[in-house]
Amino acid sequence: MLFVWDDRYETGITAIDQDHKGLVNLINDLYEAMQDGSGGALLLPIFSALKHYTENHFTREESYMVECGVPDQANHVSEHRQMVAKLAELEKRHRHGEAAISLQTLTFLRDWLKNHICAVDLAMTAQVQNKNYRKDA
Ligand SMILES: [Fe+2]
Ligand SMILES: [Fe+2]
């Protein structure tokens, strides 16, 4: 397992925590697909699923921020946009055979998600919860 879930990633907003756990599971699925001896045939479909799941998750967070009037949205949205562009580039390069989805790529995705949750998402969800706004209700 490449990415072990830790309680310190919990935001307390159920829908966001479920999304984050789904992302962690997909990164671990990619790691296993890389090692299962099938030549990586499953890597691209799982990677595409990760890309779509990530885009949906970012849309969810961004709609929370707008609805709750969270300050400093621009920096958060900018981090999301950069990751969406990165995932699209990685998918395209892999699809065209220019580059494999490597362990280095997966550790980059894991570390990005850990850092983004701890530094940016937790700050945002604390602001949402300060307004007693619970989307999961
Ligand atoms: Fe985020
Ligand atoms: Fe997030």
Commentary on this structure:
The protein has a single domain (13-130), classed as Hemerythrin-like (Four Helix Bundle (Hemerythrin (Met), subunit A)), CATH 1.20.120. By secondary structure, the chain is mainly alpha-helical. The chain is globular and about 50 Å long. Helix 1 packs antiparallel against helix 4 (103-130). It is 72% helix and 0% strand. It contains four helices and no strands. The N and C termini lie far apart (32 Å). It has helices at 14-35, 43-68, 73-95, 103-130.
**What's the rounded overall pLDDT mean?**
92
Query: What is the terminal-to-terminal distance?
Result: 32 Å
Overall CATH architecture: Up-down Bundle
Structural class: mainly alpha
Radius of gyration: 16 Å
User: Strand percentage, roughly?
Assistant: under 5%
H/I helix tally: 4
CATH class term? Mainly Alpha
Largest sheet: none
SSE run: HHHH
Globally, the shape reads globular
Low-confidence stretches: none
Which molecules are bound besides the chains?
fe (ii) ion
Counted beta strands:
0
At CATH level 3, the topology is Four Helix Bundle (Hemerythrin (Met), subunit A)
Helix content, binned percent: over 70%
Instruction: Provide the domain count.
Output: 1
CATH superfamily: Hemerythrin-like
